[in-house]
Amino acid sequence: MPFLSRPLAPALLLSAAALAFAAPAQAQARSDDALAAFAPADRLDPKTIDYSIWDEAMKSIVISMGPSLREGAPRPDPSFGTRRQYGHVSRFRLEGTRVMFSFLDSDVIASFTEYRKDLENTANIVDIQSLSRNEQLAYWINLHNVAMVEQIANAWPIRQPREIKVGGVPLDDAPFITVEGIRLSPRDIREKIVYRYWKDPAVIYGFWRGEIGGPSLQKEAYNADNVARLLTRGAMDYVNSLRGSQESGGKLQVAELYREAAPFFFPDFEKDVRAHLARYADEKTAALLEKTSGADPVINEHDIADIEGGVREPTYSNITSNGQAISFRIPQSVASLLRERDEKFQEIIRQGRTGTVTFSNITLPGVENETGEVE
User: Fold this and answer.
1) Are residues 270 and 192 in the same domain?
2) I want to staple 375 with a disulfide (CB 3.0 to 4.6 A). Which of 73, 199, 241, 295 is the partner?
3) Is the Cβ–Cβ distance between 277 and 245 less than 8 Å?
4) Can you list the alpha helix ranges (DSSP code H) found in 156-201?
5) Which residues have C-beta within 8 Å of that of residue 353, sequence separation ≥ 6?
6) Is residue 127 located within the same domain as residue 180?
7) Mean pLDDT for the stretch of residues 251-276
8) What is the pLDDT of residues 122-136, one digit of tens each?
9) DSSP helix/strand/coil, 131
10) Cβ 59 vs Cβ 220: under 8 Å
11) Side-chain half-sphere of 165: how many Cα atoms within 13 Å?
12) How far apart are CA 95 and CA 71, in angstroms?
């Protein structure tokens, strides 16, 4: 199982000319008027931001549980030798992605804070608002997700991210992020910047909340070239999962996430949400939409999206490969989760669902000016 072998280095900024460092302004209180300063500008600066360090980190600490089979996972057995239940028990535990917080040492965790501050300082070096819209969007999504990973890593072990407080304020509303001298919370970045200035509801799938019930944390950093593709991937993963949509008594139930985003993207909630789901629906989800009515935003799962359930388990198992024990010991609950994951992948192979293809940022015959820009 891979893990980070060294702390994250600061982000690199690529530009046509060398840029002088600008000291960050003194942070000021946030307000809607102040946040209007982050509106995308009409002018276009060709600079790009290099997130290769964060990309490396994501490939090292994020585990994909694979596409949903639309089958709730059964309640797992208690750990061997005890009646206490360790690890994840959620019926959604085999969906989305997981972060290996329990395998991160103090140096790696500290490097998340360093990297978050480096991203903040990037806005003092380059005018974020003048970059391409995809470049701006990638910046805000990465900054939000880096900050969430940082704070959850600092607080781990913890069962639910919503229990975390920063300076006495719940994590999602804590203004611990400073950009251009303005203090921001994760919610500010989502709702008062991105949801405010981007029209496509696909943007909601870029933001990781640290919860099983939320969108997945991608195994790649976002950038101007891949942001449309990754948002589409996240949307398809979420819409076609039990944590995104399911049936109850002939009625359609959807994630609470859509109710939160409703003021920005779904003013006619039932009609707009159902149309949005249909945009990304696979065969099973399309059939679900066809046979149900309504759109009740009641699905949630607030447990942490890690691999250990937010609790250190005292019992361990040896990992085996092809019947041979290898020198790597992990908690029994993690070993059990990984076995379930392997069984799920075997079922995916049996069903012939071995991969997906997503087209983005290409020009198709008969289609002009297809740039892959997220509106």
Assistant:
1) no
2) 199
3) yes
4) 186-187, 195-197
5) 67
6) yes
7) 98
8) 999 999 999 999 999
9) strand
10) yes
11) 3
12) 10
The predicted pLDDT at position 43 comes to: 80
In a domain, 37, yes or no: no
Are 69 and 169 within one domain?
yes
Which of left, alpha, beta for 294 (phi over 0: left; psi -120 to 50: alpha)?
A: left
- Residue 283 CB neighbours (<10 A): 8
The answer to whether 172 and 185 have CB atoms below 8 angstroms apart is yes
- Tokens representing 300 are 């949630």
DSSP 367: -
Q: Say whether both 346 and 258 belong to one domain.
A: no
Q: Is residue 25 part of a domain?
A: no
Phi, psi of 17 (to 5 degrees): -135, 160
The token pair at 13 is 């900024």
Domain's final residue, options 257, 277, 300: 300
The candidate with the shortest Cα–Cα distance to 210, out of 99, 289, 131, 53, is: 99
193 DSSP 8-state letter = I
Q: To the nearest whole percent, how much of the chain has pLDDT over 90?
A: 73
Q: Is the pLDDT of residue 14 over 70?
A: no
Q: What is the pLDDT of residue 280?
A: 98
What is the rounded average pLDDT of the residues 357-361?
40
Residue pair 216/97 in contact by the 8 Å Cβ criterion: yes
**Number of structural domains in the chain:** 2
For the entire predicted model, the pTM comes to: 0.86
Question: How does DSSP classify residue 147?
Answer: H
Domain that holds residue 326: 43-236+302-375
Task: Give 216's DSSP letter.
Answer: P
DSSP, res 15: -
Q: Are residues 295 and 358 in the same domain?
A: no
Structure tokens given for 222:
């976002």
Number of residues written out for the chain: 375
Residue 92 near residue 213, CB atoms below 8 Å:
yes
Taking all residues of the chain, what is their mean pLDDT, rounded to a whole number? 86
Which residues are paired to 62 by β-bridges? Answer: 99
Rounded distance, CA 115 to CA 101, Å? 17
Domain-located, residue 11: no
pLDDT of residue 86: 85
